């Protein structure tokens, strides 16, 4: 058994204020026994449409330093769902960072699939205009499990999740800032589908509510079992959800439905 926590946030444009709020929530999760804490996409800053955005190098980023300090102070595994760090040419990486209980950076993952969409009602997103896409799937070895890392829009690309599961992941994180429109339509069903397809626990902390930049995010941070059952749902408010997960459920789900072993190559008749 391992106790895992998701933080659900309405991050704004005040970097230092967000850092303080997040530490308070981390402390709350630790007080409830959490050993592994995961935060949403854009954890420390929901920027104002790119205006007045300071892009830090990773080793100089105040939030990265603060994250290492939190992991060390509270003695937990801490995954920062994503933070923007400099990639050069006025662009950034949308990067997940995993810290161990000693405050050391263990692995990092750059979001592979960028959100370039028009979701309706005049809402247009062009993440590629300011973000450099990653090109590597990433797995981390924790004491209790192998962890696969993804971010938000990656959720719509099942090949990535299957690749992580076949490489040994039994837990996959999906920090997100899903829009209200797409969240209402697809969030729960996609997360449950990824869990069922891979036989993994899915840990999905989310942004929620109306942000200072006017963006509306869906919330409903979820912890989903390998059988596709919703173990915890944060609803729409800021806060913490926690669940005890038993990694034996991964073995049991995959034994019942060994689909990872049944993949076959095929051709398309065109």
Describe this structure in words.
The protein has 270 residues and is an alpha/beta fold. The protein has a single domain (2-258), classed as Carbon-nitrogen hydrolase (Nitrilase/N-carbamoyl-D-aminoacid amidohydrolase), CATH 3.60.110. 25% of the residues lie in helices and 30% in strands. The chain has helices at 15-31, 62-74, 158-166, 180-198, 248-256, and strands at residues 2-8, 36-38, 77-88, 91-99, 105-110, 116-120, 123-126, 138-141, 146-149, 171-173, 201-204, 208-210, 216-218, 222-224, 230-233, 239-245. Helix 1 (15-31) runs parallel beside helix 2 (62-74). The radius of gyration is 18 Å and the shape is globular.
Structural topology:
Elements: E1 2-8, H1 15-31, E2 36-38, H2 62-74, E3 77-88, E4 91-99, E5 105-110, E6 116-120, E7 123-126, E8 138-141, E9 146-149, H3 158-166, E10 171-173, H4 180-198, E11 201-204, E12 208-210, E13 216-218, E14 222-224, E15 230-233, E16 239-245, H5 248-256
Parallel strand pairs: 1-2, 2-3, 9-10, 10-11
Antiparallel strand pairs: 1-16, 3-4, 4-5, 6-7, 8-9, 11-14, 12-13, 14-15
Helix pairs in contact: 1-2
What is this entry, summarized?
With 270 residues, this protein is an alpha/beta fold. It is 25% helix and 30% strand. The chain has a single domain, classed as 4-Layer Sandwich (Nitrilase/N-carbamoyl-D-aminoacid amidohydrolase).
